[in-house]
Amino acid sequence: MNRKMLALGAAVVGVAAVGCASMSPGPSTAELDKLTQEMVKASFRSQGIAKVERVTDIDETLRLCNAADVAGKQLDAATAKRLEEANLKTVKWPSDGKFLGDWKQGEQIAQSGRGLTWTDTANAANGGNCYNCHQISKEEISFGTIGPSLYNYGKLRGVTDPNSPAAKPIVEYTWGKIYNAKAYNACSNMPRAGHMGNLTEAQIKHVMALLLDPQSPVNK
Amino acid sequence: MKTRTLAALAAAALAAGGAAAQQQPKSATQSIEEYRAMLADGNPAELFEAKGEELWKQKRGPKNASLEQCDLGKGPGVVKGAFVELPRWFADTGKVQDLESRLVTCMERLQGLNAAEIAKTPFGRGEMANVTALATWVAAESRGMPFNLPQSHAQEKVAYEVGKRIFFMRAGTHDFSCASCHGEEGKRIRLQDLPNLTKNPGDGVGFAAWPAYRVSNGQMWSMQLRLNDCYRQQRFPYPEFGSDALSALSTYLGVNARGAKSAAPTIKR
């Protein structure tokens, strides 16, 4: 460990020296990116179920969105479209063709912020963390504002019967958005609940019901 | 101590509730602000400050020495103003270090304590609890002073650039980065307001608010612990205490906070 840290120190000095020798303002973007990767690799360790691969093996979508953020730019339209199409291909549609479960269980999942941290166990049920960022039911006043309000989600979109052909596009979009939010907005802040294994198919159905069932308090 | 804190808390919560019922309806944010103001009187962080000052002067460790010759960046023994210039580059370690990792360096070099062992000690225990108390006192000695991290050394600039990349690093099971929560103004998680850390969020907010005493769990939280728990909630793997990544991230946050007056140690929910 110590030797690795020393090597890292040497890398930093090396990069800095390159910057000085060429009288440029400092190391290049590529050098800084590489140094960041090395530093991340040396600075995080696996703890419980939170393995170090979670930060060392990120996919292309995250890599390109992260680089765009660092540069203070948005992804170019073609790249965004390519990533969105690739993410859409990962969406697994409900195996039995049924999109909606029980909104009451959906509300519990939306409330829960548990699961997948280094203090959680592998067999604990994950929450959806939904209220951290979204307003959902009117009764819950403790909600975050990082995402848009989802109050009246189905009603505002004219869903009176989620099983009707008219509701199909909204129902499918909602499933896809929960399963893999990056399928619709490549650098969305929203977690990819299905794609990354945060929620099971049954849990996604329950959250779907919370948003789209006309009986759910969300649509009252 | 614990029961007294709890009782005071309950009374404050009741008072806040009662006041809210009598007057015009208040936003949740206003109520929380009032609740914080009530708590600020008699911040238990003062106890940690006192402990930290004592530890600084006390002869301890295999070398039976105090930390009074510790160089926090402004020369041996200079404490006032040191906090608002950290993290910074240190020639003797060849690293950019934050306050806590620098204190551990001093504990090893001056007192003969084992830095690697301290880094492995969980927060709130043993020598790590002492590091937190020392950091609380050192921070308090710069209260009200504006942040002014140096960026003259090449490695300080590199630390800022790397820290920026770490701040925007989406990863983990939820694709969260620091920026997911702290990249925009006026956002909140549940009812908790979130400072925008890509720029200076103001005096006593964000970087300028830690170390802080956290009422919810009755613990003194250093910046290392604050970042550690952010990463836990991001579902990231465990960031090593005093690691280069945390120093770089703190450099990014600290440089962005330039001009903000330090309020540390503050009191938090």
Automatic annotation (TrEMBL), chain B:
Q: Which residues form the Cytochrome c domain?
A: 158-269
Q: How does it assemble?
A: Heterodimer of SoxA and SoxX.
Tell me the protein family, please: Belongs to the SoxA family.
State the free-text cofactor note. Answer: Binds 2 heme groups per subunit.
Compartments where located: Periplasm
Q: Which PROSITE patterns match?
A: CYTC
Q: Which organism is it from?
A: Ramlibacter henchirensis
Instruction: Tell me its cofactors.
Output: heme
Q: Which gene encodes it?
A: soxA
The reply on keyword Signal is: yes
Matches recorded under NCBIfam families: thiosulf_SoxA (TIGR04484)
> What are the TM regions of this chain, as residue ranges?
none
Q: What is this protein called?
A: SoxAX cytochrome complex subunit A
Which positions are annotated as binding heme c 1? 70, 106
Q: What is its EC number?
A: 2.8.5.2
Which annotated residues bind substrate?
226
